[in-house]
Every structure is written in structure tokens, then in C-alpha cells.
Amino acid sequence: MATTLSKPVLVFIPGAWHTPKCFKEVINILVAQGFECDAVSLPSVGAEARGEEPVKNWDPDVEAIRSTITSYLNLGKDVVPIAHSYGGTCASQAVMGLSPKDRAKEGKEGSVRRMIYISALLLKVGGYIWESSGGKPWGGVVRLEGGEQDGVIYPTESRNWFYGDLSDEEAAEAAKDLQSEACGVYLSRATYEPWFDIPCTYIRCTRDKCVLPEFQEYMLQTAGGHMDAVMFDSDHSPFLSRPKLMADMIQAQVMKG
Questions:
Q1: Is the CB of residue 250 less than 8 Å from the CB of residue 26?
Q2: Edge-to-edge strand list for the sheet holding 37-39
Q3: For the chain, how many structural domains are there in total?
Q4: pLDDT per residue over 67-86, tens digit each?
Q5: DSSP string covering 177-238, please?
Q6: Which of 84, 223, 247, 252 is the most buried (most CB within 10 A)?
Q7: 30 vs 33, 35, 203, 219, CA distance in Å?
Q8: Which domain holds residue 41?
Q9: Residue 66 forms part of a structural domain
């Protein structure tokens, strides 16, 4: 099997409204450090840009993530998924049965060595994202088009919500890449909690105005399992505002095994 000292493949999973482009700079740094990196395009993001109907739940996102991860596992490589914000929910579902213990039982090489969550949403089994707000979109910070089951939402506060540490020009440039998000993913219910089977790291962004620091702490306290928490002085998107420091932290956590 792959040794715990080898560098795993890093698979990045963006949050809602975002594409893999947001990870470009931090991925370039990690590639220069010798890591193989990949990033997943979530089917729930940007359906209108592709001329498609919005997905009805997060299952297509889960499948896209799992397919990417298993493509490397099938080559005998270890993988560390790195999930941001909403991406943490579907990434958690995607790794069921891919832990080192599960893969060893099947006599297979390559496993999900560790999960890294960046200011991500953590769900207990049975939970869904909008549960804390009564199953409704967040008032004042998103715009809903269509129904809550089959419509899409757009962020209306991206400057402060996502990009507080960027200059106005940088934030405006980042916002150009935002796309619609399918509403159905926010009502999908979790069926798996990977932190009981896979070592996990949670990177707490201490000045986050999207996933507030106190809510991050609440999720960590209720998750249980093997969850290492580390503090990071940043807004919601440290891979954009502090890419070198973010890359260094990712490398340190990845090589813990």
C-alpha cells in the first residue's frame, strides 16, 4: 500500500457558486512543492451557463467528487480531499467506504488518508444545510430564482461574505466567476459522517463573515470523531487572500498522515 510518508493526491472541492478556478493560485504553489492536485467542478454550480436544468439534490455533486477521488485510488494512490464551505457537505458523503480501514479490508491500495475542511459545513446524519434556518434561503444575502426545490440562488453580498480580505478590485474580479447554485442541494440530507473513520482537519477562518467563527466552533463541538482544528486568520476564502500561507498549512496537515 502507499506509505504514510508519500505525498497524496490533493483533490480540491469548491463551495457554492464557485468553480475550481478559485483554487488556481494555491494549487500552483502546491504543485511546485511536488504535490499532484486536481479540482472538482460541481454539477450544482452554473447550470444556466451550460444550458441545463438545475440539479434537484447534491447526488450529482457527490458522484463527481467520488469519481475524481476513486480515479486516483484505483491507481493505488492515497488522496486527501480539501473541501471549502458547502463543498464539505457533499465531500463528506463522497468518501463513504474509502477510509484506510475500509480499503484494506477489501485488499485495495490507495485510500482517503485525511479530510481537510476549510471553513466548511459539517452535517450530522439526517441533517441538511437549511435546517438551522427553517429550510429557507438566507434572507438578504442570496437571491432566489424559481422554487426552493428546483430553483437556483445567487449571492448578493459576495464582497463582504466571501472576499473581505481582498481589495475592491480583487474582489470584483473574483466575483466575476460566481455562478448560480441549485437550491436542491441545501435540502439534501447527510447519510455519513467521515470523521469517525478518517482523520480530519478543520481549518477555522477566524474572520469569516459567511460561515461565522462561532458556527464553525458549534459544528466542531457537535461533530465528534477525529477532528483536528487549526486557526487561520482570514476571511472565508483564504486560498484567494493568503494562498502561500494556505498552501503551507495544507502541506503541514496533509503530511501528518
A1: yes
A2: 37-39, 9-13, 79-84, 115-118, 200-205, 227-232
A3: 1
A4: 999 999 999 999 999 999 99
A5: T---EEGGGGGPPP---GGGTS-EEEEEETT-SSS-HHHHHHHHHHH-SSEEEEEE-S-S-H
A6: 84
A7: 5, 6, 17, 28
A8: 9-254
A9: yes
Residues counted in the chain:
257
Count of alpha carbons within 13 Å of 220, Cβ hemisphere only?
22
Distance from CA of residue 68 to its chain's centroid?
14
Taking the CA atoms of 31, 175, 211 and 42 in sequence, report the sign of the dihedral they define.
Answer: negative
Distance (Å, rounded) from C-alpha 87 to C-alpha 17?
10
Burial group, residue 140, by CB count within 10 angstroms (0-12, 13-18, 19+): exposed
Residue 130: burial class (beta carbons within 10 Å; 0-12, 13-18, 19+): middle
- Of 162, 228, 170, whose CA–CA distance to 201 is shortest? 228
pLDDT band of 148, cuts 50, 70, 90: confident
Would you state the pLDDT for residue 150? Answer: 86
CA 250, CA 10: separation in Å to the nearest integer?
A: 9
| Residue 4: inside a domain | no
Q: What's 209's domain CATH number?
A: 3.40.50.1820
Q: Quick one: what percent of the chain has pLDDT higher than 70?
A: 94
- Give the residue from 164, 146, 174, 151 showing the smallest Cα distance to 211: 164
Domain-located, residue 3: no
Residue 129 lies in a domain: yes
List, as one string, the DSSP characters of 89-128. Answer: HHHHHHTTT-SHHHHHHTT-S--B--EEEES-----TT--
DSSP state of 12: E
